[in-house]
Amino acid sequence: MSTPLSPPLANCALSVNALAAPLVQRLIDQADALGVQVQRDARGVTLIDAGIDVPGSVAAGRLIGEICLGGLGRVSQRCQPEGGWPDWLDVASAQPLLACLGSQYAGWSLAASKEETGGKKFFALGSGPVRALAGKEALFEELGYRDRASHSAGQGVLVLEVDRAPPPVVLDKVLRDSGLAPEGLTVILTPTRSLAGTTQVVARVLEVALHKTHALAQETGFDLAHLIDGAACAPLPAPTADSVQAMGRTNDAILYGGQVRLSVRGPVEAAHKLARRLPSATSADYGRPFAEVFQAAGFDFYKIDPMLFAPAEVWISHLDSGSTFHAGATDLGLLLRHWQQEA
């Protein structure tokens, strides 16, 4: 594996928080139309409920998906009944590394004990642009990126996949680590059982591919700096009130229905190896609905093969040679057996 001269985003001056700010304002301005609710806590932190006590919407979920991508990606919806399922999301980014790993990836662990909350313990994985202000994950050292430009603007947005608002102790941590004043922080709450929550998780189909690409870097010899462009799609399931089943459906949408194309440079052999190893079918846990896999693992994510978290089908287009390497296949039959019943 070749060693890059510098981290892949070391010279990046883009601000994911600044680019996402107009999208956050649109979510606030169109709150009623999008089915979300906006309020400020006692300190001035803006909390946006996108599905806990309000209905939310697919449209809100698409916009939240673009916010998660740091304003560097598009999330759109299309009807494709000929594919066996009527509703699909398309995701694309001209800055996939920054948009997906530098912003959208849910990698910031935010937890509070019962003693700290005075009641029920809290845990969430934070995603979205504020991660790049805090830089608490080792991933940011590897990428060589911090969103320093947003400190002067004083605005940042965090997305949490939760069914209740974070306790003050968690918000205190976010404010402290990000360097934001309370009035500069927006936190979007998206339970997976909601329309917006389901949508914003499926909108991570491209990010899931990049996360596995990162995990495979040493094995394949693929350098993240050689990622140039990315596009993906996945079927959008209906939400369900059962939290495990809701999580299962969103994961299944990507594992069995997700399709991704990455445009890359660098050694052609690395691109070829990446294509072979990237699809979800390379995992020993492949073949069952994710909710069943999760239950068999004792509801412990860390007991599940991390190689399972990947799109079903991939195309790696090597720009220097003009070759496109294809691997994997979708299994819409599995999805349809668990997602629909004939009337």
UniProtKB/TrEMBL annotation:
Its EC number is 3.5.4.27. Pathway: One-carbon metabolism; formaldehyde degradation; formate from formaldehyde (H(4)MPT route): step 3/5. It is an enzyme of class 3 (hydrolase). The keyword Hydrolase applies. InterPro entries: METHMP_CycHdrlase. It comes from the Bacteria. CDD domains: MCH. It is found in: Cytoplasm. Keywords: Cytoplasm, Hydrolase, One-carbon metabolism, Signal. The keyword Hydrolase applies. Residues 1-20 form the signal peptide. NCBIfam families: one_C_mch. Belongs to the MCH family. Catalyzes the hydrolysis of methenyl-H(4)MPT(+) to 5-formyl-H(4)MPT. This is Methenyltetrahydromethanopterin cyclohydrolase.
